Amino acid sequence: MAIPDWTHIRALDPAPLTELFAADPGRLAMLSADVAGIHFDWSKTHLTRAAIDAFAALAEQMGLAAKRDALFAGAAVNVTEGRAAEHSAERGDGAPESVARANALHARMRALIDAIEAEALGPVRHIVHIGIGGSALGPDLLIDALGRDADRYEVAIVSNVDGLAIEDALSRFDPGATLIAIASKTFTTTETMLNAESALAWLREGGVEDPYGRVIALTANPDKAIEWGVDETRILPFSESVGGRYSLWSSIGFPAAAALGWAAFEELLEGAAEMDRHFRLTPAERNMPVLAAFADLFYAQAGGCQTRGVFAYDERLRLLPSYLQQLEMESNGKSVTAEGEPVAWPTAPVTWGGVGTDAQHAVFQLLHQGTHLIPVELIGVIEPGDGMAEDHHRQLLLNMFAQGAALMAGRGHADAARAYPGDRPTATMLLDRLDPRTLGALIAFYEHRTFANAVLLGINPFDQFGVELGKEMAKAAERGGQDFDPSTTDLIRRAFG
Ligand SMILES: O=P(O)(O)OC[C@H]1O[C@](O)(CO)[C@@H](O)[C@@H]1O
């Protein structure tokens, strides 16, 4: 059993960032790279040559290269559930039979999108995509980031079981021109199934004669979808080996592919494939997902950092932090090793964040002067998304660059309340432009970084048993068959009598 040996990592004692820059003119080149339209700059982190060497040894010890190859080969890397994690096969990189299957399912998805466009299911102007977690966050991010000028369909993504969510969405749409897409890997998720029932009732009440005829399913469990009432021809399956939070590349990406067009969806997959190749083929010290994982683990294991802040300096990426919260925290928020032994080291830090410059006026005080050391990640786009005459974009990016510089440099002051300690790390990603290809590469970067973190932590990133207990208790409470503690019993009594 592989237990990560943190001895050399914890013994690292890098100099302050400004000194690291002064001592090594090659630092920027060593810790930055351009991959798939994204400039990665990790030079304002405390990674040093010695740190990279120590992590490379840890990567060797934990078998990172072999595990990465196993991931791409379609081996059962999700050991607790005995299955593969084949999101890269959706992008054309994986076991040949898995890639062939993904291609065939994509062709089916494309055909249904064409049929919908040709009004084979009746007129469609609106799409209500119902799903939660990995069945909603990815499509939501894609459409919000890339769909500003898309006018094919109006799309609403509904996830919460709170009736307000679906009520808001449905109130905007005409039932006679709405398609309901039920997105659920398992097709058993309570929130999604309740929202789906409500959407069906809304179609019926809206005078749609064959409401089931306006419903499609995006799922890895077609039998359940058929049982629910979806016609087999309107089911877009995806493989069981594609995890929920890694599923936007599969038919779960339907609303994005429909709204943005198939060409855009293909470009998204191609961008991700470029990052797949980078991750699979590049040596550790130049491999950006791996280097980023090294920095993550340095701060978590040696720096005592319990959180990481992600700030998108672009409105189009405002949903990125919530997308990453699921990807990183559901994957690596574990306290046992892949072999089921308790871990004696911190696993995933809390991912949190927001958008710049808003966040500067809300939470950056703590980043600059608080007692917590928080590694910060800044993401900006060179080509502006806006068409404003005034130079909003220049200000936006200059603010992002200034924050990274200020966090690192700090500033002394005779009055301690006005002093900035500095030496606070930032990692920066600068995208040439925000298009499907670059966004695909960015998301794939985060997936591989999460995987590299997991391998070095010795944990399985592909299960999520931790989400089950609360769901089970809610279901049992619904049936009236759950004995709760006095506090919970009182809360239930207050709410429902
Ligand atoms: O796609 P499904 O099966 O409805 O699951 C939705 C989400 O629920 C979870 O299982 C967590 O509760 C996620 O992993 C998943 O993305």
Automatic annotation (TrEMBL):
What keywords were assigned to this record? Cytoplasm, Gluconeogenesis, Glycolysis, Isomerase
Give the catalytic activity: alpha-D-glucose 6-phosphate = beta-D-fructose 6-phosphate
What the entry lists under CDD domains is as follows: SIS_PGI_1 (cd05015), SIS_PGI_2 (cd05016)
Its source organism is Sphingomonas canadensis
- The entry's protein name is Glucose-6-phosphate isomerase
Q: Could you tell me which InterPro entries the record lists for this protein?
A: G6P_Isomerase, G6P_Isomerase_C, Phosphoglucose_isomerase_CS, SIS_dom_sf, SIS_PGI_1, SIS_PGI_2
Say where the protein is mainly found.
cytoplasm
- Entries under Pfam families matching the protein: PGI (PF00342)
Task: Please report which protein family the annotation says this sequence is part of.
Answer: Belongs to the GPI family.
